[in-house]
Amino acid sequence: MQLRRSDVLDGAIAILDEYSLADLTMRRLAGSLNVQPGALYWHFPNKQTLLGAVADRILEPLDAPVVAVDWADQLKELAHRLRDALLSHRDGAELVSATYASRLTTTQAREKFVSAALRARMPRAEAELAAYTLLYYVLGQTVDEQSRIQLDSVGVLTEESSPLFETPDATARFDFGLQLFIGGIHSRVHSYGR
Predict the structure, then answer these.
(1) Are residues 23 and 111 in the same domain?
(2) Is residue 41 part of a domain?
(3) Do 86 and 28 reside in the same domain of the chain?
(4) Are 92 and 117 members of one domain?
């Protein structure tokens, strides 16, 4: 049976979910697919390209049309959709963050944030900056959330030693930051009229 690109991606995501990003090696992936490591390079010239494709697969839920009409609700919808996609895979936020930093992902998620900011009547340059700000807020918040979940799962975090138990649940923390961000855009847009 011939190895397909989608088989390689499925195998990589299975390793990511079962083990971790650190354990996602080309050798382990080849072994799990019962092929020689060289067979993987037919589809992906290197591990970085594979990770970019895995990030794109993780971010596929952001490709769906935005349901919300109002720009603020669109930003909320997209931010939650991004967070949910990242949380759906072990180390998803760390992987996507690394591929964004190295420009290996082809996703249009940031551009969707830009479109919503433009609907708020932000100038293009500021909409671009706002999109990066929101993207990295979601990535950073979710990296922290996933790290805490993993530390808690191995018993490192306890009620006495962790601020995890002192703050509201992760979604409440996320929503608070998102409200501050959207409030900042509201304030900025209203200042243009002065």
Answers:
(1) no
(2) yes
(3) no
(4) yes
Phi, psi of 178 (to 5 degrees): -65, -40
Element (H or E) spanning 49, and its range?
helix 47-58
The b-or-e profile of 17-50 (16+ CB within 10 A means b, else e) is eeeebeebebeebbeebebeeeebeebbeeeeeb
Same domain for 118 and 175, yes or no, is: yes
pTM exceeding 0.85: yes
Q: pLDDT tens digits for 124-146?
A: 999 999 999 999 999 999 998 99
Q: Are residues 12 and 74 in the same domain?
A: no
Q: How many domains does the chain have?
A: 2
